[in-house]
Give the backbone structure.
Amino acid sequence: MRIAVFSTKPYDRAFLDRAAPVHGHAPTYLEPRLDRDTARLAEGFPAVCAFVNDTLDAEVLTRLAAGGTKIVALRAAGYNNVDLEAAARLGLVVVRVPAYSPHAVAEFTVGLLLALDRRIPRAWSRVRDNNFALDGLLGHDLHGKTVGVVGTGRIGALVAKCLALGFGCRVLAHDRYEVAELKAAGVEYVDVETLIAASDVITLHCPLTPRTRHIIGAAAIERAKPGVILINTSRGALIDAEAVIAGLKSGKIGAVGLDVYEQEADLFFEDLSNEIIQDDVFQRLLTFPNVLITGHQAFFTEEALTAIAETTMANIAEEAAGRASPNRVVAEGVRGKG
Ligand code: NAD
């Protein structure tokens, strides 16, 4: 099947090129992000492959459907950027990669927490300058600390397990589904208010939905422990960045580690080192010594990209053959999904 693949980088091509022939697909790689202006590039392509910061709102989906597209294949787990109701109305099938490597993201989350709290990037740049002073590099033992894990799906469960069993943290979790294996490992499920009030570290692993948008905002920060460390490797809009800046300025928040940012679509995945960044909130975040930001790279491992490419191509092959892929995503009203 002919596939228009948006937002492609050389590393995407390398992995997709390996998987595509196995399923008889012919991908056409397009560098631009998918949006209202670029949707016309997909004209005549029965399948479109999109990534996390592509726009798949009703307008874009209408343009894709008018151009003959039948299948929208997300090479990602999250689908908050897709208007699923519009897709259903237009007869577009949406498929995704629900679990390419939860380990990639979980391991990165713990790495981000350690790098942030133990000031590893700061230490690295000092040592390169022959500055071996330790002032300003003081961290905490994770052992014995209380970590709140919001969302114990594939990724959150691995993070919770690693911190409980590996580091000896007390782990509080919040999710509407409780995982027996985590409870057996000592993880305690609590309501979100208790989690926020009792945690030294809060790490977010729930999807972005209208209910979870700005789950960490001014009110949550107010309720949190002084010195709380916030980690977000899930979706940027789970955090109200302006409220976080206020919490950092007042000293209420101890440190923040982010792999995602609400307005990341204008920034991430591009080399903007010669540009003047217009996002003042993002720029302000970068000025804090106790903030560590990476550009949505938690998924970026050899294993994850191999799995993403393989599952994406298999999803399209299933749908092209007239079979419903197990990785179809449908709107809440059509079938419940967390
Ligand atoms: P998942 O669907 O397996 O787990 C999400 C969990 O969140 C589910 O158990 C669900 O019940 C729970 N949940 C839903 N609403 C909740 C709420 N209001 N409060 C608490 N929990 C709630 O998803 P996953 O594979 O573990 O991925 C988690 C998130 O990580 C995804 O939403 C995705 O956006 C993000 N992600 C980021 C990267 C990255 O590179 N940074 C890569 C992959 C996924």
